[in-house]
């Protein structure tokens, strides 16, 4: 038999299973599901809840666990969830004889509203407790997402200003009343200008650049006119406010829990927003030195103090309470600016006070600032993880707010000053120190939340069923394991 005939014979052969009548093959049947319209409703419900969490800075592991919990509660046990930074995809398995049902939602808006996140958490507890039908849950979620912010925008502006004033005190400006006032005024101006630019859909990169330029220009102007003795602290306070809304905690959580694509997206956004801030600060420094000459250019590296933040001129017995109150005020103002309800607001203030106190104590005994920040936020993550579940509030609020007082705004400013004004290559090392500090803060919070899990589960069933550190989502793991 020739090669051609053999090839034709092979082509004519067919798998015996394919020639069998329907129903006689080895078919894997999927689970019994509701009707198709209900399946689509449940999938969309899970997607929209996950979108609120992603927009609030929750990690991809939390979003995945939340969606799986929601769809499992409504009879979709075999659902796969794929979360990346800009979209969420869910697919329900229906067996080998039917195609899966797949839905996708793009996450476009990213605005912090902790009241909305808290309301979604409460709705999630009712869903997993089988208290609502899918239609009722969908209607309630519609009301939550369509509701306006709980208080006017000017309250948020005052909160950002209060945060900047608290940071100025925390950074060592408590003995100079003018410094917190300048920091608060420049931050309020930046927030209002940013609001106008946001209405005109200006990209956030340019909004950060404008904000950094305004804050630096105001501080340098006050320094040149003699209103301020140290412009660096005012600029550093404003830089921390502009850095505070970034997803440092979420990016570290995603990286640690294995969601590398989402972590890369968050880190890329963090780098881009920081680059915009750097551009604005450098531009103002350059113009200020050109216009002001010696009156501004007389700021040298020595006047900026140490990278770790200059020590305030206060008695040791007074310094710790002042820093603790300033840290608590910083975190509470950030939570209020992010529209947090009362209980999360109180918990955020406690977290910020603990972080500032621990960091201050460690720096007093000459612990390096990176290690001090990591230890302080680990304590915050541990305590916050326990308190948040007891009070049934999102741990994410405490985590992000607790990090705010320790963000490396002063190191960022000094690095930029060294590069743009002093033309010193040491600025690169200083900026790398700022980056290392930011990553250490995020990692510390995630580690603290991880360590809090055994305590929350009464130390009994722990060690076998870790699902990874959790900042948001269902209180109890679903029957299906979340890898």
Q: How many strands appear in the DSSP assignment?
A: 3
**What gross morphology would you assign?**
elongated
Rg (C-alpha, Å): 26 Å
Q: What is the rounded distance between the termini?
A: 55 Å
Average pLDDT metric = 77
Q: How would you describe the overall organization of this protein?
A:
The chain is mainly α and 483 residues long. It is 66% helix and 4% strand. It contains 19 helices and three strands. The protein has helices at 3-12, 16-19, 36-55, 60-73, 114-128, 134-146, 153-173, 178-199, 204-224, 231-244, 248-256, 260-292, 294-297, 316-337, 342-364, 369-391, 395-403, 409-420, 426-456; strands spanning 79-83, 87-92, 101-106. The protein has a three-stranded antiparallel beta sheet, with helices on one face. Strand 2 and strand 3 (101-106) form a beta hairpin. Helix 5 (114-128) runs antiparallel to helix 6 (134-146) and helix 14 packs antiparallel against helix 15 (342-364).
Secondary-structure topology with pairs:
Blueprint: H1 3-12, H2 16-19, H3 36-55, H4 60-73, E1 79-83, E2 87-92, E3 101-106, H5 114-128, H6 134-146, H7 153-173, H8 178-199, H9 204-224, H10 231-244, H11 248-256, H12 260-292, H13 294-297, H14 316-337, H15 342-364, H16 369-391, H17 395-403, H18 409-420, H19 426-456
Antiparallel strand pairs: 1-2, 2-3
Helix pairs in contact: 3-4, 3-6, 5-6, 7-8, 7-10, 7-14, 8-9, 8-10, 9-10, 9-12, 10-18, 11-12, 11-19, 12-18, 14-15, 14-17, 15-16, 15-17, 16-17, 16-19, 18-19
């Amino acid at each position: 038999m020739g090669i051609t005939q053999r090839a034709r014979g092979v082509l004519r052969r067919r798998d015996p299973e394919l020639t069998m009548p329907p129903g006689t093959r080895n078919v894997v049947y999927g689970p019994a599901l509701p009707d198709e319209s209900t399946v689509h409703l449940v999938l969309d419900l899970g997607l929209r809840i996950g979108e609120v969490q992603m927009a609030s800075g929750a990690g991809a592991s939390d979003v995945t666990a939340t969606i799986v919990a929601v769809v499992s509660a409504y009879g979709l046990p075999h659902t796969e969830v794929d979360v990346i930074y800009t979209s969420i995809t869910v697919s329900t398995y229906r067996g080998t004889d039917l195609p899966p049902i797949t839905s996708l939602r793009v996450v476009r808006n990213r605005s912090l509203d902790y009241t909305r996140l808290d309301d979604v958490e409460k709705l999630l507890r009712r869903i997993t407790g089988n208290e609502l039908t899918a239609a009722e849950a969908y209607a309630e979620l519609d009301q939550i997402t369509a509701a306006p912010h709980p208080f006017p925008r000017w309250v948020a502006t005052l909160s950002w200003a209060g945060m900047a004033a608290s940071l100025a005190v925390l950074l060592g400006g408590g003995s100079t009343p003018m410094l917190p006032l300048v920091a608060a005024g420049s931050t309020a101006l930046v927030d209002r200008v940013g609001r106008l630019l946001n209405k005109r859909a200006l990209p956030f990169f340019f909004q950060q650049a404008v904000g950094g330029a305004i804050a630096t220009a105001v501080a340098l102007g006050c320094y040149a006119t003699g209103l301020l003795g140290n412009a660096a602290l005012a600029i550093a306070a404003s830089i921390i406010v502009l850095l505070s809304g970034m997803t440092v905690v979420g990016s570290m959580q995603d990286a640690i829990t294995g969601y590398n694509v989402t972590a890369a997206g968050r880190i890329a956004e963090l780098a881009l927003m920081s680059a915009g801030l750097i551009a604005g600060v450098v531009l103002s420094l350059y113009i200020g030195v050109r216009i002001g000459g010696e009156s501004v250019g007389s700021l040298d590296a020595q006047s900026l103090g140490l990278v770790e933040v200059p020590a305030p001129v206060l008695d040791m017995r007074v310094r710790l309470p002042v820093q603790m109150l300033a840290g608590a005020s910083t975190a509470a103002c950030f939570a209020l600016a992010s529209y947090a309800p009362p209980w999360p607001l109180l918990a955020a203030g406690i977290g910020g006070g603990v972080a500032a106190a621990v960091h201050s104590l460690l720096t007093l005994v000459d612990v390096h600032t990176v290690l001090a920040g990591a230890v302080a936020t680990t304590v915050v993550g541990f305590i916050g993880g326990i308190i948040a579940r007891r009070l049934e509030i999102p741990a994410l609020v405490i985590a992000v707010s607790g990090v705010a007082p320790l963000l490396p705004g002063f190191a960022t400013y000094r690095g930029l000053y060294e590069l743009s004004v002093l033309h010193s290559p040491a600025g690169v090392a200083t900026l790398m120190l700022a980056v290392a500090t930011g990553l250490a803060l995020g990692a510390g919070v995630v580690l603290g939340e991880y360590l809090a899990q055994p305590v929350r589960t009464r130390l009994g069933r722990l060690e076998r069923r870790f699902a990874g550190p959790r900042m948001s989502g269902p209180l109890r793991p679903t029957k299906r394991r979340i890898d």
